[in-house]
Amino acid sequence: MTALLRIGTRGSPLALTQANIVKSALAAAHPVLAAPDAIAIEVIKTTGDLVQDRNLAEIGGKGLFTKEIEDQLSDGRIDLAVHSMKDVPTVLPDGLAITTILERDDPRDALIGPYASLAALPPGAIVGTSSLRRGAQVLHARPDVTIVPFRGNVETRLRKLREGQVAATLLAAAGLNRLKMSAEAAAILEPDVMLPAIAQGAIGIEARIGDEQVAAFLAPLDHAETHLCVRAERALLATLDGNCRTPIGGYARLSHDGGMRQLTLDGLLISPDGRHGFRKRLTAPADQPDALGKAVGEALLAAQRD
Ligand SMILES: NCc1[nH]cc(CCC(=O)O)c1CC(=O)O
């Protein structure tokens, strides 16, 4: 039979795991999708997958991991796309939207290697990361270390670490958890030392605006609390995008203050050498994620100008 739903995804082990998480959730929510072959997973190569050798800084290369997938979604060759939300640009192609965000896994970064903290790294240690955000925050804590570019999927990076090319590296805890590799983490770094990337740990689903059948299938998968947090973080990113070329971090969480639900958003702008960092934390009612993200972004831009 032909599939009722076609899911588009990148082909990395992490991307495939995430697509299968969405497939299982859909099958659990809708008996019609539980039949074998009701859901097809289509692997799509993106520019980010093809260009493995160059250093793709986190702040550059917008849409590197999403464009080819979005083209197939717009064309109707797939019905939905599963993304790591931290790889999704703030501006989407006309006609497409992030309709659904799953419950967030651990948003923090993990330190990988034999050292259980940044403080425990040997003097002058070589740390591998191609993320300007991670590199800058490592240098902020440990100005003596050397940051070297480090790419490839999770398995490749772990192999390079075992071969001794670097003393340590950093990976998203969520990715390690999904790959059942959390035992590789020597430490999970708290947001006060390593503010996560915008939307780290959240899986998002992109669909065609107006595709009501797909929307109905996806509705039960949305996690409202995660969606609010990611929305605040992405509003922060949208405010800073284009206004600065500096590494960015952002992390929102929900809390209850009496009967009131509050969103607290931490934002970070930091120079790649780690020497000039600005942090801002603001709290707002939970129904104002966009205004909160914009306010934190504007406060960071003002601090950077002064
Ligand atoms: N840039 C690649 C990428 N995109 C999302 C994740 C982790 C999973 C997540 O954030 O949900 C990773 C790997 C990593 O940074 O370690």
TrEMBL record:
Superkingdom, taxonomy of origin: Bacteria
UniProt keyword terms in alphabetical order: Porphyrin biosynthesis, Transferase
Gene Ontology CC terms, in alphabetical order: cytoplasm
E.C. no: 2.5.1.61
Catalytic activity: 4 porphobilinogen + H2O = hydroxymethylbilane + 4 NH4(+)
Cofactors, names only: dipyrromethane
Glycosyltransferase as UniProt keyword: no
Cofactor mode of binding and number, as noted: Binds 1 dipyrromethane group covalently.
GO-annotated biological processes: protoporphyrinogen IX biosynthetic process
UniProt modified residues of type S-(dipyrrolylmethanemethyl)cysteine: 244
Domain Porphobilinogen deaminase C-terminal: 228-301
Leading EC class: transferase
Function as written in the Swiss-Prot or TrEMBL entry: Tetrapolymerization of the monopyrrole PBG into the hydroxymethylbilane pre-uroporphyrinogen in several discrete steps.
Other notes: The porphobilinogen subunits are added to the dipyrromethane group.
Subunit structure: Monomer.
Family under the similarity heading: Belongs to the HMBS family.
Protein name: Porphobilinogen deaminase
Organism: Elstera cyanobacteriorum
